[in-house]
Structures are given as structure tokens and as C-alpha cells.
Amino acid sequence: xxxxxxxxxxxxxxxxxxxxxxxxxxxxxxxxxxxxxxxxxxxxxxxxxxxxxxxxxxxxxxxxxxxxxxxxxxxxxxxxxxxxxxxxxxxxxxxxxxxxxxxxxxxxxxxxxxxxxxxxxxxxxxxxxxxxxxxxxxxxxxxxxxxxxxxxxxxxxxxxxxxxxxxxxxxxxxxxxxxxxxxxxxxxxxxxxxxxxxxxxxxxxxxxxxxxxxxxxxxxxxxxxxxxxxxxxxxxxxxxxxxxxxxxxxxxxxxxxxxxxxxxxxxxxxxxxxxxxxxxxxxxxxxxxxxxxxxxxxxxxxxxxxxxxxxxxxxxxxxxxxxxxxxxx
Length: 329
Fold this sequence. Notes:
The protein has helices at residues 11-22, 55-60, 72-84, 107-110, 126-142, 160-171, 201-213, 248-256, 275-278, 309-325; strands at residues 2-6, 29-33, 42-45, 48-51, 65-68, 88-91, 103-104, 120-122, 144-153, 220-227, 234-242, 261-263, 284-291, 298-305. It is an alpha/beta fold. The protein has 2 domains: 2-124 and 312-325, NAD(P)-binding Rossmann-like Domain (Rossmann fold); 127-306, 2-Layer Sandwich (Dihydrodipicolinate Reductase, domain 2). A hairpin with a 6-residue loop joins β13 and β14 (298-305). The longest helix has 17 residues, at 126-142.
């Protein structure tokens, strides 16, 4: 079982190697692939050192699956070339997510859509992944009408440059800026570029991806996405209006037994999800569960997950695990 990791030297690529090892995916050989400037660098997987190779050499190695985290442009150019060579591609960029011919997959929600014909599979946006994992079991029971979400997203969602900016600012060091504004001691209500409708690209990703993954275009989603000075872990305040009445105790029970979800909801002990608890975990944590007292059949919830793991690397590896379980790798 040869596995290629494309973008192996980046933040997410490094995390993918870690997650593959931790989850004991049956790798016989890792093929680390990156841009020309990184070729020849070394990565370590399960104590063994591998040299980073070029895209062409990655295809020539004939891995069973290639997990991409190298940016949209790279994915658009190279994913079809890997697929044409019979290599299944799981792509972490935004390149293929809304392509109607490609599946957008969160295994806990819609793994069953995958077939033997799927050679390029899209990994959703990090903020969408954690939200739909928590929403899907409730949708099946009560049918969701509308979702209002505000996110509090870690700088690791931007990448190493943003992490460096945050720590440089904390130390009072001048350095390269990932953001237009300081991020330390600040909150930036913009993730990605603005679109003509006044929303950012990240906000509209959450809208469109939720509908596609949950296979229900009737769910109305509106989002505000915000960058905060936290290293690792995205948080979301989510207001969910249902078609059917719900019982709060039953909601807690449904979430407590849902795949990939851990409920942390105890007001008496002030126990609720935080990035601190979610760090290096694969689950989605849900708490602050309460009725919206201003509107019928509406729930407020707080959702937190490690954006580099479940929001990216772990979700991609779980897709590979599903393919393997179905004999597609």
C-alpha cells in the first residue's frame, strides 16, 4: 500500500503524515511529494526517512492513493494526471469541492456516496466539516430549516506564515504579515476575499458545501467567519432552526451517540468545548446546548474541532480508510 502525500512539507501535509501513522493506516511506503523547491528534502514517517520527490516522480511511483494538500492551482493541474494513472486522489484544496462531477465527503455524513468510479474526491473546508458532523444526526431526526453560524478560526487555518505573524507580534518582532492587520490582541472579521454579495469566499464555502455534503439544498445557511489569535482549533457558534420540535435531553443523547462527536456540556462545572481540549484530537466537540428563547424549534450550540486534524488531515485519511474498507484501494 503505497501512499503519496502531495504537499508533504506544509502544515497540513506534515499533519497528514502524523495522522496516517497514528491511525495505523496500512502504509508499506510513503511517497512524499512537493514543489520543485522542496524536492530532495527529507520527511520522517514511522521512524523511517523518505526523500521528497517531484510530481512526475510521485505519479511514476504508482501509489494506490494520493492525499493532496498543495493548494488549488496545484490540484487543478495535477490531480487529473494522478487520476489518469489510476491513482485515487483525496484533495484538501477548494479546487474540486463544488465541481458537480466530484464527491465532497465527510465520512460520518455521506461516505456512502463514494463509488469505484470516483478517482478525485474532495475534502471539504475545515469549518464546514466540523459543523456538518454535529448537524447531520440532528437533521436526520428533526430536519434543519436554517443555520446561522459565526466562526472563531485559528491562525493555523491560514498557514505557517500566519502562525509566525502571531508569535512575532507577541515578541514585538517585525516580520512578514499574513494578514493586512495585526492578529495578536485582535479579531479579524474576514477570512479569504470578499465577493460581490458582501460575504467572503470562506462564508460562501460554508453555505454551498453544507448543502452539497448533507444532500439537501433546502437547508438555508448564513455565515460570518472570523480569524482569532489562537494556534490550533476552530470554534463555531451555531443557531439551528428545525422543522420539527425537539427535546433538549434527546438532542444531547443523539449527539452523545453520533459518530465522531463528543458532548462537553455541563453548566454546573463550567465544562464546554474549547480549542485547548480539542488540540490533537480527531473528534468534533459540542456543548453550550440550549434553546433559543426568541424562536420556536431553534437550538443554540457551540462546536469546536482541531482544524488541522478533523478539519483537514484526519478527514482525508478517514476517506482513505473508507475506500480501503470497500475494497477500492
